[in-house]
Amino acid sequence: MTDHVANNLQSGNGSSAPWTRRGFLLSAAALATVPVLLTADPALAAAELPDFPAEVDLYRSAYRNWVGEITADGLWACAPTDADQVVSVVNWAWQHGRRVRARGSSHGWSPLTIESGTASDAPVLLVDTAPHLTGLTLDSASAVRAGTGVTLEALLTFLEGHGLGLTAAPAPGDLTLGGALAIDAHGTAVPAKGEERTAGHTFGSLSNLVLSLTAVVWDSDTGAYVLRTYTRDEADCAALLTHLGRSLVTEVVLRVGANANLRCLSRTDIPATELFAAPGSDGRTFASFLDEAGRAEAIWFAFTEFPWLKVWSVAPTKPLTSRRVSSPYNYPFSDNVPTLVADLVGRILSDGAWYLAPVLGNAQLDVAALGLTATLSADIWGPSKNTLLYVRPTTLRETANGYAVLTARTQVQRVVHEFTEFYRERLAAYAALGRFPVNGTVEIRVTGLDHSADAELTGARAPLLSALRPSTEHPEWDTAVWLDVLTLPGTPYAEEFLRELEQFLFRTFDGTRVEWSKGWAYTDQAAWSDEQVLGTAVPGSFGESVWGQAAGTFDRLDPHGVFGNAFLDRLFG
Questions:
Q1: How far is CA 238 from CA 234, 302, 455, 461, 470, in A?
Q2: Pairing status of strand 71-79 against strand 136-140
Q3: Which residues contact 544 (CB under 8 A, 6 or more apart)?
Q4: Which of 96, 118, 126, 145 has a Cα at 20 to 30 A from 190?
């Protein structure tokens, strides 16, 4: 940054405030970079980590999650070059009383990797998958073999080069495949009216595409951890498909299908009262767009009336009005924090001007509406990857809660309407008291469930702990509505507000499950802290037998608890 630009970004008295626009952007940029890795001093490493496998790179590393709320400095970390080295590291950790935490891009919110406040001398070893576990090969015309350190963007690019693709995918391309599978990552897609699932595809999570996986597990015969490959029809595989960090998977084989060209239309002209109207209402409702195209997402900025609606549709040939896109991330006004938004965020954070939340929400809406026009991004078309991926690491970083509500397709509009009505009413009630707990967005997506038949493998099992696992008690539930609320970290009253939303969801919709990577189990002070949600609501949302089977499998495949942390110990009891 030049001195001229830096001077222009200083506060009025000539000194930089703690959260000026410059400070905010530099912090965001720092979070977007790869963690600083410090080469280990051989003597110190030998003293603190005796007999560590000599062939594996060892270093000190900081850990930062997506929004910087969970951090740790100076942890020991390593980067095995292949699966055999991973096994050597895991056996060393077991023998030396350390716990292993696999790390990809750290693009998550919840304490599934490490807990906040983990000390540098904690008996933890980070295993970085992204440097080397990145192999990509075609196993067949409809299956890809991938290392779990590969990013989703690299995976989708590889598939696209072979005429293959996915129905839907998470918006950030920097997610590693292993991290995405560990928490049943998803996109937004259900069948449009009259649409049938095509071979090799699923409307469920990425975990539902797994045909086989290779994990590090305990072998009682040899008395050591070993590599074992599980096929989708094996009972143990069902737990490993969404393991929440209670295992370490090195490689997977995924079912894939023919790629599709997608058109993505964006609009900001439909009021929330119409888009989220009561079921049975006429007009441009969210459910009507699902019927028409099957793929939709609403991004509703706090204290605004017009959500940013994205609707994807399968379009083999380019529509006349669409702009062809040959690469992803086609919303630069969203990927990079605009000056107006950065200035407002800086003032909110540095001055505690939380009352500016309505101004920030409307500024973000204005930026989106103008940006879509200015960048010709309101109507884009191209291979699926180029419209599905749209979040870069440089986007505005906010904390987020997340839930999936399982329901019947015919009830989607009701779920959306009742949730948004409750959210709007509570937000207004807080504002009337001078409290502004949300300054980000509500994000709404809709997917199908993880039907094991989509794997096209006889005897395939559904992921045990995927939020999209079908309910045996409610076969009419065929759809999941994903609900997220985003706000800046440190926002006063946010936890209290999000707790009210969570309790509303569990109270109102029997099919509510948490989104593993986001915030949940709220008390008035913190996420992941409500013992009733942790110990009863979450296990109950899957059923006692399913939860018990998953927990039992993790314990049997890792009887020494090498793969885990204190939070996972609490979660699985």
A1: 7, 39, 13, 6, 13
A2: unpaired
A3: none
A4: 145
Q: In the structure encoding, which two tokens stand for residue 530, read together?
A: 């409500």
| SS3 assignment, position 480 | strand
> Residue 549: what residue type?
Q
Residue 149 CA to residue 145 CA, distance in Å, equals: 12
The burial class, CB within 10 Å (0-12 / 13-18 / 19+), for 50 is: exposed
Question: How many other C-beta atoms lie within 10 A of the C-beta of residue 426?
Answer: 16
Rounded Cα distance between 487 and 551, Å, is: 33
- The first and second tokens of residue 283, run together, are 């007009």
What SS3 state is found at 80?
A: coil
CB 62 within 8 A of CB 74: yes
Query: By C-alpha distance, which of 106, 27, 33, 26 is closest to 71?
Result: 106
CA dist., res. 143 & res. 107, Å (int): 26
Question: Using CA atoms, how far apart are residues 371 and 188, in angstroms rounded to an integer?
Answer: 23
Nearest to 452 by CA among 137, 258, 234: 234
CA distances from 451 to 206, 344, 460, 481 (A): 12, 45, 9, 16
Residue 32: pLDDT band with limits 50, 70, 90: very low
| Residue 491 CB neighbour total at 10 angstroms | 22
Instruction: Walk across the sheet containing 37-39 and list its strands.
Output: 37-39, 57-64, 71-79, 124-128, 99-103
Q: Which residue has the tokens 């696992």?
A: 469
| DSSP designation for 277 | P
Size of the chain, expressed as the number of residues it contains: 573
User: What sign does the CA torsion over 118, 466, 461, 250 have?
Assistant: negative
Sort strands 210-219 and 479-487 into parallel, antiparallel or unpaired.
Answer: unpaired
- For 9-52, give the secondary structure using H, E and C: CCCCCCCCCCCCHHHHHHHHHHHHCCCCEEECCHHHHHHHCCCC
Distance CA 155, CA 137 (A): 10
Outline where DSSP puts E strands in 256-374.
257-258, 261-267, 295-301, 308-314, 323-324
Structure tokens at 225: 């951890």
Alpha-carbon distance 130 to 133, whole Å?
Answer: 6
Structure tokens at 353: 């001007």
pLDDT tens-digit readout, 61-87: 999 999 999 999 999 999 999 999 999
Q: Any idea which residues carry the catalytic annotation?
A: 107, 297, 443, 445
Confidence tier at 120 by pLDDT (50, 70, 90) = confident
**pLDDT score recorded for residue 14:** 32
Phi-psi label, residue 303: left if phi above 0, alpha if psi -120 to 50, beta otherwise: left
Residue 62: enclosing H or E segment and its boundaries?
strand 57-64
CA distance 28 to 103: 20
- Helix pair 339-351, 357-374: axis angle to 10 deg: 160
More confident residue, 39 or 450: 450
pLDDT above 70 covers a percentage of the chain that reads 92
Q: Does residue 359 have a pLDDT over 70? A: yes
Question: For 48-53, which contacts have Cβ atoms below 8 Å and span 24 or more sequence positions?
Answer: 48/76, 49/76, 49/96, 50/96, 51/92, 51/96, 52/78, 52/92, 53/85, 53/88, 53/89, 53/92
Q: Scanning the structure block, which residue is given the tokens 């969970």?
A: 70
Q: Which two tokens stand for residue 176?
A: 């590693």
